[in-house]
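Incident log, entry 3
Record: Thiamine-phosphate synthase (213 residues)
Problem: checksum mismatch between cached and fresh output.
Input:
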Amino acid sequence: MSFKASELKIYFICGTQDIPENQTIQDILTQALEAGITMFQFREKGDKALSGLNKEKLAKELQALCNTYSVPFIVNDDVSLAKRINADGIHVGQDDEAVRAFSNDFQDKIIGLSVGNLYEYEKSDLTNVDYIGVGPMFETPSKSDANAPVGPDMIKQLRQKMGKFPMVAIGGITEDNVGLIANAGADGISVISAISRSNNIDNTVNEFKKYFK
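Fresh output:
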């Protein structure tokens, strides 16, 4: 599928580990889609994360939901799963499989890469990458292995290096600090708990949308 930077505006990332006990990921995603998220990434990580056929079954269910709303469905890190279910794209980190190793299989797909700082930018081959995820912006409760926050200024620094290359900010973004991200020049925001643990997903998404029209 053809990728547009506008699809990064409200980029929801989620797995079963991010869902409150009394809810399901299917319900949370449906609410987020109804509210107007522009992209979804299935990120199943952690000690209690699903694997194997259970993970694939859930991925297909969430993919079908995204298809209903014409929202791109991205798989985090798991290249083989993304290929098997024909996901819209794949997102990998600096320590995951190198993009060049699988890019031939994703020529008509979306490829995202995490780039946390200028050093990672300098060593990254972006030839086949459609967008980068920059962060963490702030302290984040959703990733136990997250690096130290780089702040919105990193968006500005990367903009000077990369021009209009699509980039989405991630890490600790809330309704209170989203304005700093928009002002720094990001194409959008990636959020996990801000949506998955919101008391009113519709209000949260619509508040974010004010900054990325």
